[in-house]
Write a structure and sequence with these properties.
The structure is a single chain. By secondary structure, the protein is α/β, with parallel strands linked by helices. The protein folds into two domains: 48 residues; 253 residues, 2-enoyl-CoA Hydratase, Chain A, domain 1, CATH 3.90.226.10. 50% of the residues lie in helices and 16% in strands. The protein contains 14 helices and eight strands. Strands 1, 2, 3, 4, 5, 6, 7 and 8 form an eight-stranded mixed beta sheet that branches. Helix 3 packs across helix 11, helix 6 packs parallel to helix 8 and helix 10 crosses helix 11. The termini are far apart.
Length: 314
């Protein structure tokens, strides 16, 4: 994206100047202040008029923080658990236990990987059935030990390969949705990048659903929608507009509860600031639900999802 190139270039120049000032070169201070002001002005102007398709590009940015990054920066003493006790371990999903702000929690999230080798190992964040069954195992352990569950959603969708279908992909997704719907412990689900189809919804049945400002959440990708409806993937930008996949659209439709703001330019430009914003958002929503009676929590969670998609004609 031209938007990203401009912002990234300015961000890199600012970082270089910041390091020079830290090392004692005070002559660069005025230049740093001016460049920061320019960065804020340009970024605000460009981000005010982003199209849904441009937000898709930001949601897919390869340097955008992943689940593993949020775990590293927000969760202390994290212990990852592996395997579904049936077939094997799926590295497209990270799951385990740790502490968030001193609160013992279960953490489950999609992981796309960063370099080529890791992306292949993680299957580009597209889970197999065993990934969802691993997630279910962790959810049930969280319920048993009364631990809140934090899920991080970032996937193009569940893996559609023959092996995945043979091992019960659709059943695993359905079981995950059903388990979350009745889980007797607080759940906070956050879309941090792509929220694609049932592969995302399998980790998205929460008491509170958050979306990062430049993330997307949809039943199908814009390219897939364009190929089906318009017989051409070149119509993907038009499909993105029609699908209402942005955080702003979904908040207005009542699908999500909260939009987590991102640093100017996107989460990948200032990841450290993004972690602070995420920490604040999770603390706020956890405080709202952590002391609610579990029966009330489950009842409200189910009512929230039952009400989605209902419209009254006047």
């Amino acid at each position: 994206m031209d938007l990203d190139k401009d912002i990234q270039s300015l961000s890199e120049k600012i970082q270089i100047l910041r390091e020079e000032v830290k090392q004692g070169n005070k002559n660069k201070l005025n230049e740093l202040i001016k460049l920061r002001a320019k960065f804020r002005q340009i970024t605000k102007e460009k981000l005010q008029n982003l199209t849904p398709w441009e937000r898709v590009q930001l949601a897919r940015h390869p340097k955008r923080p992943h689940t593993s990054d949020y775990i590293k920066n927000l969760i202390t003493d994290f212990v990852e658990l592996h395997g579904d006790r049936r077939f094997g371990d799926d590295k497209a999903i990270i799951a385990g236990f740790g502490f968030f702000e001193g609160i013992p929690v279960a953490v489950i999230g999609h992981e796309k990987g960063k370099d080529t080798k890791e992306k292949i190992e993680r299957n580009f964040g597209m889970p197999h059935p065993e990934g969802y069954r691993k997630a279910i195992r962790i959810m049930k352990l969280a319920e048993k030990f009364k631990r809140p569950v934090l899920t991080f959603i970032d996937t193009p969708g569940a893996y559609p390969g023959i092996g995945a279908e043979e091992r019960g992909q659709s059943q695993a997704i359905a079981e995950s949705i059903m388990t979350m719907g009745g889980l007797k412990t607080p759940i906070v689900s956050t879309v941090i990048g792509e929220g694609g189809s049932g592969g995302a919804l399998a980790l998205g049945v929460g008491d509170r659903i958050l979306m990062l400002e430049n993330s997307i959440y949809s039943v199908i990708s814009p390219e897939g929608c364009a190929a089906i409806l318009f017989k051409s993937q070149e119509k993907a930008p038009e499909a993105a507009e029609s699908l209402k996949i942005t955080a702003k659209d979904l908040k207005e439709l009542g699908i999500i509860d909260c939009i987590v703001p991102e640093p100017l330019g996107g989460a990948h430009v200032q990841p450290e600031k993004m972690y602070k914003l995420m920490r604040r958002a999770l603390k706020t929503v956890l405080k709202e639900i952590i002391n609610k009676p579990v029966d009330q929590l489950v009842e409200e969670r189910q009512a929230k999802f039952y009400s989605m998609g209902r419209f009254a004609e006047k």
